Amino acid sequence: MDGHGTLFGTLSGNTREILHKFTVDLPKKHGRGGQSAARFGRLREESRHNYVRKTAELATQLYINTSTSQPNVSGLILAGSADLKTELGQSNIFDPRLQAKILNVVDVSYGGENGFNQAIKLSAEILSNDKFVQEMRLIGKYFEEVSQDTGETIIKHFNKEQEADQRNFHDSATSSVLEIQEKTSLLEWFANEYRKFRCKLEFVTNKSQEGSQFCRGFGGIGGILRYQLDMRSFDELSDEEVYEDSE
User: Fold this and answer.
1) 20: β partners
2) Which of 221, 228, 229 is nearest to 204 (CA)?
3) 64-65 vs 15-23, strand pairing mode
4) What percent of the chain lies above the pLDDT cut of 90?
5) Name one GO molecular function term (predicted).
6) Can you list the domains of the chain with their CATH numbers?
7) Which stretches of the chain are DSSP H helices?
8) CA-to-CA distance for 108 and 117, rounded, in angstroms?
9) Neighbour-count burial of 92, counting CB atoms closer than 10 A to its CB (0-12 exposed, 13-18 middle, 19+ buried)
């Protein structure tokens, strides 16, 4: 909530949903003196009061279950770039059932959806058990490792279109047909094999901004290695050594 409008949303598990949003055009502060300034000031305060009232009423409609007359959320985060959020939370207009659910009041730099995302990040400690925040932290750690260039391994796998292309099943050097020994989905392979490598398997979605970026930029698959791996070390093996190992 700020001087331009209010957005209502929910965070459940790793799903973030925008319930409702509206804009407002509050009168700016009047710089002139005299009776006109006083009259303008009263109009401005009245507009501000009506804005807080509308926000409080919508909060009740959205966050109170009409069947049980109880909040349908486990907690509330009030966020905004001005003091309107504080005024709302302390107002006697704000439903006391919702006041009791306030977990945090945070200052954000943006309004609307960007402010919503920022409020979630700033409340990460309070929401530490929430799946959405855990997912954001996990992908954030992955991006951090990539930016530091601590070592990357790229694993290619076939999508449906690539699987239908028979050229992918021919040796590029000899053009001979490759024999398929086993065929399984990558997801199934991860689920069955990850324990053998003493690694931790995490599934993420594209519901969050970070998750969407991860899916678009990295294809939705990534790994954080325990130690840096220099792939050049594998090139030092001679053909003879590879052959002996394969036997």
Assistant:
1) 8
2) 221
3) unpaired
4) 29
5) translation release factor activity
6) 5-127 (3.30.420.60), 134-167+183-246 (3.30.1330.30)
7) 34-63, 84-90, 96-99, 112-122, 131-147, 160-164, 186-193, 209-218, 239-246
8) 10
9) exposed
